[in-house]
Amino acid sequence: MSEIFTGNFTQQEPIPEDAIEAAVAVLRSGRLHRYNVAPGEAGEVALLEQEFAQMVGASFCLAVASGGYALATALRALGVKPGDRVLTNAFTLAPVPGSIASVGAVPVFVGVSEALVIDLDDLEAKADQADVLMLSHMRGHLCDMDRLLEICQSHNIQVVEDCAHTMGAKWKDRWSGRDGVIGCYSTQTYKHMNSGEGGLFVTDDPEIMARAVMLSGSYMLFDKHLAAPDPSVFADIKYQTPNISGRMDHLRAAILRPQLRDLNTQCARWNERYVTMEEGLRNTAGLTVIARPVEETYVGSSLQFLLLDWPADKVQDVVKRCAARGVELKWFGGAEPVGFTSRYDSWRYAPSEPMPSSDRVLKGIIDIRLPLTFSLEDCALIARIIKDEVSRVYQS
Question: Which residues of 20-52 are buried (b: 16+ CB within 10 A; e: fewer)?
Fold first, then answer.
């Protein structure tokens, strides 16, 4: 009899008890707004910003309502205007081009390689089309950041890193989010820290951070921040920057601070699951396991593989057969966007010329979540099911 998986791909671990206690303390205080603090109190949001900045070695940090809000704030803080062109990945999730469109700018899509990272040759070819690159480390895959920075520096391109899937990851010894002028992170439920929704924004540039703080809605209370520039930096910026409210509140920050302390442990647990799955899928005919560069310290909270050059009906058959055995696969090759699997040709507000080499890769991408509620035995079972069904369909 065929093995069946009975776990839930959307079930996260409970919020840690110390985070629950911190959240309850905030609720009992009644002080949820980030600037509503008692005399002499820093507040959960300011402390989270300080602690995250210290962890990644950033000068400044701002906690905001979502990762998408952080991305749009980054563009506004850089002075991106309606009609400006912004380079970004063809393989990413909708909030990335959405943030570009939200400021009236025009996404210029850069292709994806078989390693599932931005195609650096395509980036170099398009580098003269924009002054900003919103680089998405999609599904936790880091490109050759040294070469990317060489390309961008030679063309005076400012890099905003979308680190929604790479909080805790590194290229060589550099934290993801620290190579660009701005790094943006997400604390949405399926990311590496869970506050339901939320985001973090880091930079070393005092004027960029001052603009971001004002954009987030500081109401001239910027002196209450612990990870922001000196108040003197705000002297002119405070009069010139609109309030587009998007602050994080104390409740979410209280939930996140204990998770930040456990982040390294959680990342190691994800990688155990990732390696178990990856090893189980190796040597499957027709299936390509994604090679990870030695310079990358990744966080394997999801896993991707390629069914490269498969007919669409056979890919759909694999997805259907795995689903019948309890394994939820997401496919980026469908004609219509489904759930999280939209791609550059789905976003009709941002038309693009066809990219055949990228289309070939996108049509083969299969994506699977690896929540920490899965045991290593669960991951091995899931890999056996996928291997079995891919082999059956491939040989048919």
Answer: eebbeebeeeebeebbebeeeeebbbbbbbbbb
Helix, strand, coil percentages, rounded to 5, for the chain: 40, 15, 45
Give me the CATH number covering residue 386: 3.90.1150.10
d(CA 188, CA 169): 17
Q: How does the average pLDDT of the chain come out, rounded? A: 97
DSSP string, 281-300: HTT-TT-EEPPPPTTEE---
Do 275 and 344 lie in one domain? The reply is yes
Backbone angle region of 104, left / alpha / beta, with phi > 0 → left and psi within -120 to 50 → alpha:
left
Q: Is the domain of 255 the same as that of 331?
A: no
CA dihedral 252, 254, 258, 264 (to 10 degrees): 40
CB 393 within 8 A of CB 311: no
CA distance 337 to 378: 28
Q: Are residues 82 and 187 in the same domain?
A: yes
Pair (305, 216) in one structural domain: no
Residue that terminates a domain, selected from 261, 296, 319? 261
In one letter, which amino acid is 189?
T
> Quick check: 107 and 97 in contact, CB under 8 A?
yes
Nearest alpha carbon to residue 369 among 199, 122, 165, 223: 165
User: Is 8 part of a structural domain of the chain?
Assistant: no
pLDDT given at position 334: 84
- Is the distance from CB of 180 to CB of 205 less than 8 angstroms? no
Q: Say yes or no: 296 and 167 in one domain.
A: no
Domain that holds residue 351: 263-395
Helices (H), 241-324: 250-261, 263-281, 312-324
Cα 266 to Cα 264: distance, rounded to the nearest angstrom: 5
In a domain, 1, yes or no: no
pTM score: 0.96
Task: Give residue-wise pLDDT tens across range 324-355.
Answer: 999 999 999 887 888 788 889 889 998 888 99
Q: Number of folded domains in the chain?
A: 2
Distance CA 348, CA 363 (A): 18
Please, are residues 148 and 125 in contact by the beta-carbon 8 Å criterion?
A: no
Contact criterion met (CB below 8 Å) for 223 and 105: no
